[in-house]
Fold this protein.
Amino acid sequence: MRRRPHAWRDDDELVRLAREGDREALSILLDRYYDRIWAIARRMMVNHHDAEDATQQALIAVARGIGRFDGRAAISTWMHRVAVNACLDELRRRQRTPRPLDEVPETEPRHSSGPDPATAIVERDAIDAAMSDLAPEFRAAVVLRDVCDLDYDEIAEILAVPGGTVRSRIARGRRVLRTQLGDAGNSNGRELVEESEP
Amino acid sequence: MSDPLDPVDDLTEVPLGDATLSRLRDVGPVDAVVRSRHIEEATRHLDGAVTTATTYVRFRRLSIAAVMLLVVVGVGVLVTSRRQDGTNVAATATERRAADAAGAASAVPKADDAEGATTEGAAAMPPVKSESAPMTLPSTESTAPPDAGRDAQGRQAGAALGSFDNDDQAREAALRRYEEHRDELTTHDSSQPVACPLPPGLGTPIEWSTAVVAGTPRLVMVVRTADATVRALVADPRVCVWS
């Protein structure tokens, strides 16, 4: 097994070393945040291949931008911001690029969340379809809240929008998801607040 | 018109059910090979960034070092140059002092060429400020007593000689002016220069002249001391210190 001399260091130390050009430190840092970046990308980009591309772009953006990271925000906040921006950039780029009709999102049989693989695939497709109905900005807010479990202040900082905007985007995004997924919500979910639609 | 991304009427929390949340969070694992490739590729970009930054930093450091080296070399050359100049000046001064001493000993003017020497020396004399010249003349046993009006006239004449320097034209001009004011310079007391009189105590002036000693104009004065010996005194006309 390969020995990783910086594995015991905390994020700040790894950032400092990475800024000095330490590849090993950056590698460990990216590995620590990889799952989170991947989760953001997977839900933002809807299909698996696009998510891989976005993840790669996000990691490269981290590598290129780590020298400019000034430490004013937490490294985790900065990583989330880079990941979201990479996904938004990738979405915009793909919107501008015409895609062949036969390029349909792959249904990945590589992972199964339940006992029935067929059901898992159907569920995943349904989630992907529901997410694709959300505008990217709404999608980002919902993903950061419900996938990454960040609080509103962090999300506001990552998206660089006011807290009220974050709440609004999350609420509207969830409403679309509920409609698309036939989810009426339940008391075991997040805090339930009665809606007061005008 | 409100921003469609920032509606103000949707600030209420809309919860998702557990099942939906679970499905949403189930993003599946990433292939280990893909993960490894992603990280490796990204770290390669750090190399590029760091290489660029390192190159820039090295270039900047080299530039600073080169500038500092140039400054040090420049200062060294300057200091060496000044030291050499100082050595030359010191050597010249030493030579001049030796030449002065030798010149003073041999510069006792002869009576028959005193006037010629005076004329030649006056041409080589630098300007002498008449204001700095003492008004009191030493007691003398020769010639007529000093006259205040003549002293003033003499000072004016001395000032009229102007700057001599080593410039030929200036020298000629000074000679002409000297000739024009010669009487005024010498009539009241020909035994010593009006602009550079001998202070009391050094002796009684007999006669004076000018000489160029080692390229430097000097006043030379023959005096009779208190013990009745005759001596030659030399003075730099710019400072009028006789010795």
Q: What stands out?
A: Helices of chain A lie at 11-19, 23-45, 48-65, 75-96, 117-132, 136-147, 152-159, 163-181. Residues 23-45 of chain A form the longest helix (23 residues).
